[in-house]
Amino acid sequence: MPAAVSFKGVSKRFTLHHERPRTLQELAIGLLGGDKGRTEELWALKDVDFEVEQGETLGIIGPNGAGKSTILKLVAGIMRPTSGEIVVTGKVSPLLELGAGFHHDLTGRENIYLNAALLGVRERETKAKFQEIVEFAELERFIDVPLKHYSSGMYVRLGFAVAVNVDPGILLIDEVLAVGDEAFQRKCLAKTEEFQREGRTMIFVSHSLAAVKKLCNRALWLDKGCMRSIGAAEKVVDEYLEAVKGEAG
């Protein structure tokens, strides 16, 4: 079977703009004078190569700014690489920014259909999953209340419930197992373990190294956009911890 996700020589560059004009007058003067402001190139990823096999759970670890979330956004199609090739085989469900696309003036019910549509799910499929989504989010009493009256916890629970109940082939998880209270966190963890038993593919970004060891078959260690190590989760996590201890003196 082809790999679920394949990265071949992938790099991603961002251009940072410093000293942006604060007014239209400053912008006009800068353009007329040929001054477009100081810019800086930032390479979030540099020549990254890896594959995620069908049914595998890959953990991605590293310090802040290492490029972990950039990889997830490239897999989800939110971004395009500057160079290299990315091949994704299967339907992707990203748990990156939960509730992205929700409309605060619409009810929870209406937002379920809206968010599912943004994830590429047909209306009849959402209708079949609707009750399961509501029960998972524990929002039966509030499903016809506008989102602007939801607490932050209710908001992210609804986002998580939609994402995990739209039959994902490849699940992208970015630090979202910490949403809600402790009971809901356990429910989220149980759902990911259920996906593993079903043979679904997952890419899991987390600063919780214990969770990476527990959930992941393999781990990828990123540092400043470069691959430092990839292999068995426990081995790579231990290498990362040793490096962090060494840097701390």
What does this entry look like structurally?
The strands form 2 sheets. A 6-stranded mixed β-sheet has the order 5-6-7-3-8-9, with helices on both faces. Strands 2-1-4 form a 3-stranded antiparallel β-sheet, with helices on one face. The protein is 38% helix and 26% strand. The longest helix has 16 residues, at 182-197. The chain is an alpha/beta fold and 249 residues long. Helix 3 crosses helix 4 (123-137) and helix 4 (123-137) crosses helix 5 (152-164). The mean pLDDT is 86. The protein has a single domain (5-247), classed as P-loop containing nucleotide triphosphate hydrolases (Rossmann fold).
Topology summary:
Elements lengths: L4 E13 L6 H9 L6 E14 L4 E5 L6 H9 L6 E6 L3 E4 L12 H11 L4 H15 L14 H13 L5 E5 L7 H16 L3 E5 L3 H7 L2 E6 L2 E7 H15 L2
Parallel strand pairs: 3-7, 3-8, 5-6, 6-7
Antiparallel strand pairs: 1-2, 1-4, 8-9
Helix pairs in contact: 3-4, 3-5, 4-5
Write down the domain tally. 1
Regions with pLDDT < 50 over 5+ consecutive residues?
none
CATH architectural label: 3-Layer(aba) Sandwich
Major sheet: 6 strands, mixed
